[in-house]
Amino acid sequence: MQVESQLGRLVAAGVAVFAIAGSIAGAPTAIAAPAAGTMPTTAGTGTASVNTGEEEAPVTALANYTIDNANTGRCLTANQLVGEANSVFTNTCVGAASQKWSIAGGKFVNVGTGQCLDYNGDTIATAPCFANTDPVVQYQRWTTDSTTRKWIRHAVFTGSCMHSGGGVREYVTARSCGSSSSRWTFAPA
């Protein structure tokens, strides 16, 4: 009960709170938003730093975002069915946890599932997040450009961007970067 009370106060204060599968033990620490013009990055497990193009500096928060198809405004949504890897699609934005993403160190972590956006060269899905020291973490790293309507480009398969026509329950796939339907906007959730 005391933990629920503390969480309620943190949420009311606008602090991002992370809970995976209802467990508080081992969850990442809630931290405040990085300074404007910087990109949050992870500096290890459960910590974060800000990448300013120089050395990593510690920060005090990660923010959650909705990621919307720039053509239709539909939200990037993670399938919350139980499974090793789950599909990702666009859907009408309803504010669900499955439509909120925490972004750090090039990883997009779905708030509803606690899983990372993953691309293996064939399929974009959510999958359990790999440790930053694991060699396969590269499949969960993404970059964006600095425009308002962003390409979300895979960090390893650099010619591949997230793509969706933005329809209701339309699967997100990888496509060569450059299509206008591969543009996305980010909004604080």
Describe the structure.
This protein is mostly beta strands. Helices cover 6% and strands 35% of the residues. The protein has one helix and 16 strands. The strands form four sheets. Strands 8-7-4-16-12-11 form a six-stranded antiparallel beta sheet, with no helix packed on it. Strand 1 and strand 2 form a beta hairpin.
Features of the shown structure:
6% helix; globular; six-stranded antiparallel β-sheet; five-stranded antiparallel β-sheet; 35% strand; mainly beta; 189 residues
How many helices? The count is: 1
Low-confidence stretches at least 5 residues in length (pLDDT < 50)? 1-61
By secondary-structure content and strand pairing, the structural class works out as mainly beta
Strand portion, in percent? 25-35%
Distance between the termini: 26 Å
> Percent of residues in helical segments?
under 10%
3D shape = globular
Give, in order, the helices and strands.
HEEEEEEEEEEEEEEEE
Spatial arrangement of strands, main beta sheet:
8-7-4-16-12-11
- Calculate Rg over CA atoms: 16 Å
